[in-house]
Design goal:
Helix 2 packs parallel to helix 4. Strands 6-5-4-3-7 form a five-stranded antiparallel β-sheet. The chain has a four-stranded antiparallel β-sheet with strand order 9-10-8-11. A two-stranded antiparallel ribbon has the order 1-2. The chain has three domains: about 80 residues, no CATH class; about 80 residues, Roll (SH3 type barrels); about 90 residues, Alpha-Beta Plaits, CATH 3.30.70. The protein is about 40% helix and about 30% strand. A hairpin with a 2-residue loop joins strand 4 and strand 5. The mean pLDDT is about 85. With about 280 residues, the chain is α+β, with helices and mostly antiparallel strands. This is WYL domain-containing protein.
């Protein structure tokens, strides 16, 4: 067996897999494929984006290229995670719509579709006219960046809120320099793609890497004796405020002054909701 293993390794044919005294020839990359399948599966399980049926189909597909023994191993290692999978409260089938939107982007098509807004003043789906240019996943949801003809700007639409695609027509050739930049979006946006692009500075008193991970492209400009760090980031303020407010006393905004004022106003309004309770 040692000679056989050596020969297989020399010619990069595969490896011998010992299964209780039965020997099977498997691909050399089988172990590495297993690692990638496990990683992709756990990311998918953590996304919560797919329905239970679509999730199971996708996970089963990911492991189809593995050997039977590796498929069994994947099944065993994902049993707990699959059993505890919790889809979004109103999860909708998305795989067919993902393919449809991706095809429209490739074919440079304009769409007329009905869209369910999250605004309370729009309880029913409304007709939209827009051209999709980018499709991506972010924090539980798939998003489609589209050029909206009526507003003459790029807007983000949640894929699961697109109700029906009514028509498809040949789209416009959008100027490349003015196209939606997914790279900029990922660097500048936290949760909400709102607010002016602004360079901000804040003191962070918790583990510094946490803040740097939430704001890609941010960096440390100073370190205080108490272990806190001064961080600078170039972000869209509307979304960034959600994270800054979530950190409580671990964050102190330093600049710009307009953001300091926004933080003070918001925190004062939050405090006003909780009247002082006298100790008895």
């Amino acid at each position: 067996m040692a000679y056989i293993r050596q020969a297989l390794a020399e010619y990069n044919v595969g490896v011998i897999d010992d299964q209780n005294g039965t020997y099977c020839l498997t691909q050399q990359s089988d172990v590495h494929d297993l690692e990638m399948v496990l990683a992709a599966s756990h990311v998918l399980l953590g996304s919560r984006a797919l329905t239970g049926a679509e999730l199971n189909r996708t996970l089963d597909f990911l492991s189809t290229g593995l050997s039977p023994s590796m498929q069994t191993l994947v099944h065993e290692q994902l049993t707990l995670s699959r059993g505890s999978y919790t889809p979004l409260s109103r999860a909708k089938p998305l795989l067919a719509r993902l393919r449809e939107i991706s095809t429209s982007i490739d074919h440079n098509e304009k769409l007329v579709f009905t869209y369910q807004s999250s605004h309370a003043g729009e309880p029913t789906p409304r007709v939209q006219h827009a051209q999709p240019v980018a499709l991506f996943f972010e924090t539980y949801y798939f998003y489609v960046a589209m050029w909206n003809r009526q507003r003459h700007s790029y807007l983000l639409y949640r894929l699961d809120r697109i109700v029906d695609i009514l028509t498809k027509t040949t789209g416009e050739r959008l100027a490349y320099a003015q196209r939606f930049s997914l790279q900029d979006h990922r660097r500048q946006t936290y949760l909400l793609d709102t607010g002016e692009l602004t360079r901000i500075r804040f003191v962070y008193r918790n583990y510094v890497q946490t803040a740097l991970d939430y704001f890609p492209g941010s960096y440390v400009v100073d370190r205080h004796p108490d272990g806190s760090h001064v961080i600078e980031a170039y972000v869209k303020v509307g979304g960034a405020m959600l994270w800054l407010l979530s950190q409580g006393t671990a964050v102190k905004v330093l600049s710009p002054l307009s953001l300091v004022k926004q933080m003070r106003t918001t925190l004062a309004a939050v405090l006003a909701q909780y009247p002082k309770i006298e100790d008895k």
